[in-house]
Amino acid sequence: MAPSRNRKIPKEPAEGDFTLFLWGPEKFARRESILKAFTTNPIFSKTSVILPSLARKDAWTRAAHQARELIRLKLQHNWSHTQFMEAIRLTDNMLPVQPQFRIFLSNLERQMTDEQKAIWVPKAERFEIFGSYAQTELGHGSNVRGIETTATFDRQRDEFVIESPTLSSTKYWIGTTGVWATHSIVVAMLIIAGKDHGNHLFLTQIRELETQRLMPGVEIYELGPKAFQGMLGTDNGAMRFHGVRIPREQMLMRNARVERDGTYVAPKNEKHSYGSMVTVRAIMAESTGWDLLKPVAVVYYYTSYRKQFRKNKEQEEETTVLDYASVQHRLIPLLAQATALVLVGQRIKKAYDAYTANYIKTGDFSQLEDFHLQTVGAKVYSTEIAGHGVETCRIMCGGHGYHALSGFGRMYANAINAVTYEGDNYVVGQQVPRAILKHWQNGTEAELPTLSYLSRLRETEREAPRIESLKDWFKPEVQRWALEERLVNLVQQHIEDTSAGRDTSYACHALTMAHGDFVYWKGFYELLQDLQQSSKPFLEPVASLFNVFALSVLQVPHHATLAAALPLSQAQHKTLRLAKSAAVEELAEKHLSDVIAAYGFTEYELDSALARSDKEPYGALFEEGAVRSEMSGDGMAHLWPMMVDTRQMWRRSREERGGKARL
Amino acid sequence: MAPSRNRKIPKEPAEGDFTLFLWGPEKFARRESILKAFTTNPIFSKTSVILPSLARKDAWTRAAHQARELIRLKLQHNWSHTQFMEAIRLTDNMLPVQPQFRIFLSNLERQMTDEQKAIWVPKAERFEIFGSYAQTELGHGSNVRGIETTATFDRQRDEFVIESPTLSSTKYWIGTTGVWATHSIVVAMLIIAGKDHGNHLFLTQIRELETQRLMPGVEIYELGPKAFQGMLGTDNGAMRFHGVRIPREQMLMRNARVERDGTYVAPKNEKHSYGSMVTVRAIMAESTGWDLLKPVAVVYYYTSYRKQFRKNKEQEEETTVLDYASVQHRLIPLLAQATALVLVGQRIKKAYDAYTANYIKTGDFSQLEDFHLQTVGAKVYSTEIAGHGVETCRIMCGGHGYHALSGFGRMYANAINAVTYEGDNYVVGQQVPRAILKHWQNGTEAELPTLSYLSRLRETEREAPRIESLKDWFKPEVQRWALEERLVNLVQQHIEDTSAGRDTSYACHALTMAHGDFVYWKGFYELLQDLQQSSKPFLEPVASLFNVFALSVLQVPHHATLAAALPLSQAQHKTLRLAKSAAVEELAEKHLSDVIAAYGFTEYELDSALARSDKEPYGALFEEGAVRSEMSGDGMAHLWPMMVDTRQMWRRSREERGGKARL
């Protein structure tokens, strides 16, 4: 039976209960108003210019003009910071204004005293200053403790002197700092009277407001091109400080303080220091799923158009590519996993926002450790799935997926870097096993909701449910057992490795992914149970997505070594394989087109020649890709004489050699 | 114990027995002479221009000039076709001359009559004509039978009329056809007196030799940008034919023939038709391993320079990144697998060349089926490992791997497309299971050396060796048993699925990879045995590479579903994991630096700011990436006034709103 299908690519956002359930009402409303503003504004057009063909500086110039227009729109419509950040994401172009709220203002708010905020927050909110956040150094990424930049207190002049003592201390990869930013929050080692007090944040002006010229002692270079033509809209910077002076009042002093006489007042709690990373990771937890859903939708539309070969010799027409298992078994698990990332990610983000709001009011950070663990786990898990998933989508589309205008290249370039930024996944991912180990050894797992499952480890006799048919795999208790069993075995292995003094930095990535599988399964299951209370019409498709998620992460795990950690008989492996196939086929046949329609990405959001509302993919590829190419027609005519002449070279070289011969 | 290390990045190719063993003496000699020619010739400089920052047409212009210079060098030094093709690869820029020998001339030679060859081969060899090969259509990729372009015989005028009847019949992705080529071998359906005789090849002139203008009836567009800024040096084309006429003599008639009166003489053997794909895949089998070795070498050099965190709190300095298991267990298996691809790939290519030479002489194509199977298997297996392996290398380098000048982006863009071109791996990969099934059912596996292992399937009682300690996993008979066992179980599963009428197009990709694991293991093992006869000094490192290859493909399989196909006890899984770790650590500690040194890639070949012979990585990133960026300094000064003005917008919009309020 062929999947149900609805190939219409929407111009306008979709409507309906299911849509609101997936998007969340607020996010959906924000998106609608952004789309309205964008699709009528030529500067945000995604088809009038072919960015990948431009010189990099011309592509960035466009991004800078988009940034200006976006600021105008925010001031005009009074958009919230969230709305503004989501508008940036909709440009698919990571504008230079991206860090303004995502990391610049959020740090001012969390780390400045009320007096400081009164001065700086309004300036940042109304873009009177352009902000960036300067932590990473050429020689120091994930290891913040290694940072070499210093901020030395000059008591005489009541100033800090910022200094870059070495090449490796050069601030590097600093977003929006190469050309755009006027102020940067610099992470530097605080030194008072020769004593090192560790890293603190210093608001440093780096460019003159009136001229955009560099401030004295500030040395900045734009970073140059990225892999995959990625982040065309971002002017990352390399920045060095040579005796740059800022007033004492520009150290962010909400937690730690330096007084007029140089007295250092330490923060009540060190954990504050990783607050800003937690914030960004919470944003990522919410957003990465969407990065994967768009290519999934493009593949759906394209593969339900493309035909290739015949499944059985008899049939007249070639088979629609979407009907092949080779596409369904790659595409549909990604749809289910992306949905899990979105639904569970939204919950993490909401809970964290509530926590921060309360924390800023009351200073209560008791939950910070759990949120740190939740967000770091979500960051690693979601970026691995989204990043590699986008590329799987491109590859599913065969050769045409390699055309820049299919859009996958852009999507991948802007998604995969998340596995190494905000902490390399193999490095920050170790924080999950570390926490597991600590709480397991102290028997304190109950304190952290995220780790409560560890208590199962203490059950000496874990009883396995009976798994005899493929139906059994659709039972939540069976799925839970399998995910926990795999996890528990990996935790045991991790404990063994650690006590044996083995380097676990490789093996524990699999553990972090298995932890994510369980955490997201649990969150998804809770959502499903809530939904079952309210007999919504879209309960069935969501349940179907849930089963595909659970069975796909079990049968095709995100790290190849995970399979060995789940001891099943050959018969059970077989039923699992067939159960996953059944789940995938059910979703494909009954719900796929409804789910895609419910997400209802507009052609503007998809920005792919394979998904235009008014053109079929082949027509779009031909017209937009080929006919419009700047190298078509006589675009390269200036080189024609060279080519003609090159075809004559053999004659000349023969004569030359002939000539030599005669000598 | 820290790995032995030699961080010197060679300017010149390395020397020595081990080097010659890895490269093969001929290839090594060719490479030396090419490097000599290139490194002294400014047009081939990889550092004088930052390609990823240029507009696409400017990047291609450079490639076109390199192509011209390469032709001059070939004519001057009388380079062989192989040498010429390897020179193109060394530019890392897929020049427009790439198809000339790889697929244009090779088809003339295999498919033209001797009379035809006498006319056309010399023209092609001396570049009097620029050739391309036009098979793929907008609507028809892997399914060649679906091709719609027609070549109708006009008996009156003794000509063929080439026609593109539909949009989907547009020849698409045709290399070097957008701007460069003058002649194209067009795959089209032969029609004589209304009768369709299937696909044949037609040499068609597409541009005037004297002007580079399009021939009458030929419509061509350049295809536009690729994903990841890939293939900057290639002008792929979209091509349509409107009643284009060519003389009957320009059908390639070695196998099938059309006589003056329109009589069609069918080929003795249909298999000829896929000859050209087999040729290209044989070239790929030999070359893909090298695509992976270069990023592996870059990671080695960079991670033995970069330091991050401390393994144990005591140590003074931060730990060298290469010393972490998280790097070693990703990097070293790739080194071993790439080595297997190179060594076994060379054997496949050599054997195929011998076969073709003999076939052109004697017309004996009896081995074609086996070579078809070998090359299609090698193409799928090697491109999956190389493509994804390159990206694993980039990700291992953290944030700096995302800088375009680290070179990984270029390497990935130019390697990963191989999983979809020359046949999508999920599609052409099915030919392996299909052949397995056919010969299994006919009991004819003995006829095909590649499938001889199938006979084991017929043994009702396969005895498992005793596997009790990690040492057992280093026994070749244990490795062979495990690889065969996994393979045999997958073949059984495939047979079940097929007879149950299931769509196997997804599942059988894992089978094709398991087939590749075994074939490459077997080939590598035979090489090792030969080596053991001659007690070479580099026997130890090669044996070490062999064990890492075998144990890594078993413990971290190339398709996550493979693990379940090898039934091991938990204890055996554990010993396998520890055995693989031991193998990786042994290679890291004893042989890694010797192997890297033996490959001895020069800084020109690596072309990465992370691997310069005269600069440390941080210095290179800072100077070449940042200081040289065209957006540094006042490169974007024309936008400064806009930015200054943007920071004033809040005032104006406040006044406006104030104004409105007053109305």
What labels would you give this structure?
663 residues; Butyryl-CoA Dehydrogenase, subunit A, domain 2; six-stranded mixed sheet; homodimer; 9% strand; three-stranded antiparallel sheet; 11 strands; Butyryl-CoA Dehydrogenase, subunit A, domain 3
How would you describe the overall organization of this protein?
The structure is a homodimer of 663-residue chains. In chain A, the strands form 3 sheets. In chain A, strands 1, 2, 3, 5, 6 and 9 form a 6-stranded mixed sheet that branches. The longest helix of chain A has 38 residues, at 325-362. Among the domains of chain A are: 130-276, Beta Barrel (Butyryl-CoA Dehydrogenase, subunit A, domain 2); 277-310 and 321-445 and 472-596, Butyryl-CoA Dehydrogenase, subunit A, domain 3 (Up-down Bundle). The first copy, chain A, is globular. The model of chain A has no long low-confidence stretch (mean pLDDT 93). The first copy, chain A, has 21 helices and 11 strands. In chain A, helix 1 crosses helix 2 (25-39), helix 5 packs antiparallel against helix 6 and helix 8 (325-362) runs antiparallel to helix 9. With 663 residues, chain A is of the alpha+beta class. Chain A has helices at 17-23, 25-39, 56-77, 81-91, 99-111, 114-125, 275-303, 325-362, 368-396, 408-416, 425-428, 431-442, 455-458, 476-499, 507-533, 539-555, 570-599, 603-606, 617-627, 640-646, 649-662; strands spanning 131-134, 150-154, 159-163, 171-174, 183-192, 195-205, 218-222, 237-241, 244-247, 257-258, 264-265. Chain A is 51% helix and 9% strand. The interface between A and B is large, with 146 and 146 residues.
